[in-house]
Amino acid sequence: MPADFDLIINGGEVFTPNGLAPIDIAVKDGRIAELGVFDPGQAAESFDAANLTVLPGVIDTQVHFREPGLEHKEDLESGSRAAVMGGVTAVFEMPNTNPSTVTADDFNDKLARAAGRMWCDHAFYVGASDDNAEHLPMLERLPGCCGVKIFMGSSTGSLLVEDDETLREVLANGRRRVAVHCEDEPLLRERLALVRDGADVSQHPVWRNEDVAFTATRRLLGLARQTGRRVHTLHITTAEELPLLAQHRDIATCEVTPQHLTLVAPECYEQHGTLAQMNPPIREGRHRDALWHYLRQGLFDVVGSDHAPHTLEEKQGSYPRTPSGLPGVQTLLPLLLDHMNAGRLSLARLVDLTSAGAQRIFGIAGKGRIAVGYDADFTIVDLKAKRVMTADWLAAKCGWSPFEGMTVTGFPLATIIRGDIVMREDELAVKAKGRPVRFVETLTPEEVEA
Predict the structure, then answer these.
(1) Rounded CA separation 340/348 (Å)
(2) Which of 156, 180, 227, 427 makes a 20 to 30 Å CA pair with 35?
(3) Is the pTM of this model over 0.90?
(4) How far apart are CA 254 and CA 236, in angstroms?
(5) Who's near 34: CB < 8 A, 6+ residues apart?
(6) Residue 420: active-site member
(7) How does pLDDT run across 294-353, given as a tens digit for each residue?
(8) Is the Cβ–Cβ distance between 161 and 151 less than 8 Å?
(9) From edge to edge, which strands make up the β-sheet containing 427-428?
């Protein structure tokens, strides 16, 4: 007789919409068929999750996998491999590649490159440029598109949208939530003289100071209010931005990164040098304390890794000519589990920041919770396992992390995507089977053909 189900996960504690429960999960045709108590023999395959915790699949909504054009740093295969090794089941990838992702052809090229190579499910941002605003309402609804990304600072070429007129035009074209890097480019140019002729990397948060971030966020929120456009502010870093964002919850959601919750200046620059250089910068303790306070107050909607790898050779140049960015997709969940075990956040808050929040604000279809009918995406963790994040565990092509050698409590042991066990105890499946993420607002097949 054929089995009733394709996969049964039994014996674990499962984080359902009702909270943790000692129940089993039955999977059929890539989706959750039923929650209850089952005999493992009812399925073609079973997973014994005794003493483990089954979480909704982790979704990382900000990664830079560098393909096309910058594959010496990372590519779609290696970046997604790092993702599933760290328990991540889906990623949203950024448009600042070479060429930038600003047209339908650019976008479809990325989808084609991902097919059969990406280990996790995936969606791609379309970049807003100085000349594509009128096309954004169509581009943002392409199947597999997670939305539009705006760089107000720290980008190159046409992806930089620094003036209010262009920013207003971008926000006025389209309706899905827009993700924004908020650093004020005019202020960055004005303050560049502080480091232009050479400086210690500890001056990075002096050049890109609090006002650089706050000014951009304030400008964005004002224009979002004028145009009625929902925005998502990425990698918030300053204490000053947080109460401002709290006043605009009807139009603005926000993200924090594990790096800004974990590292602190000036110690991170003393210990890691340019390996801790990212935009916006790691800042001093009062900012990190404020991020944690507002995280516990419920302000942040998601945690994103801002995985942005560069080679060691590139990173070992002279500041400020060294590139900003560090890898993070593989270490996102271990860092958060370690913070949870240290009492800084609850498991329920962790789940909301890594799965339910992304589903809620981006309109993801069928992911973000363990419920009947949803995709069978699971991140299975040992909440009490102590692991050292070693160099041989890191899968990103750049081969380094500022968190290498750190001991964490809590670790991902398996990554299951649409019922396929993609990673189990640091071993990968035979074949990459990632697919485009589905969204509520997308083009119909007829519109795509047209």
Answers:
(1) 10
(2) 427
(3) yes
(4) 7
(5) 5, 25, 26, 372
(6) no
(7) 999 999 999 999 999 999 999 999 999 999 999 999 999 999 999 999 999 999 999 999
(8) yes
(9) 19-21, 13-16, 53-56, 378-388, 407-417, 420-424, 427-428
Residue 74 phi/psi, 5-degree rounding, is -170, 160
Q: Which two tokens stand for residue 81?
A: 């491999």
Distance CA 140, CA 78 (A): 26
Among 75, 322, 73, 64, which residue's Cα sits nearest to residue 179?
64
Domain residue extents for the chain: 57-362
CA 141 vs CA 90, 229, 362, 445: distances in Å: 18, 16, 12, 11
Task: Write down the catalytic residue from 306, 338, 377, 420.
Answer: 306
306: phi then psi, degrees, rounded to nearest 5: 50, 45
Nearest C-alpha neighbor of 191 from the set 163, 215, 220, 168: 215
In angstroms and rounded to an integer, the radius of gyration of the C-alpha atoms of the chain is 21
Architecture of domain 57-362: Alpha-Beta Barrel (3.20)
Average pLDDT of the chain to the nearest whole number: 96
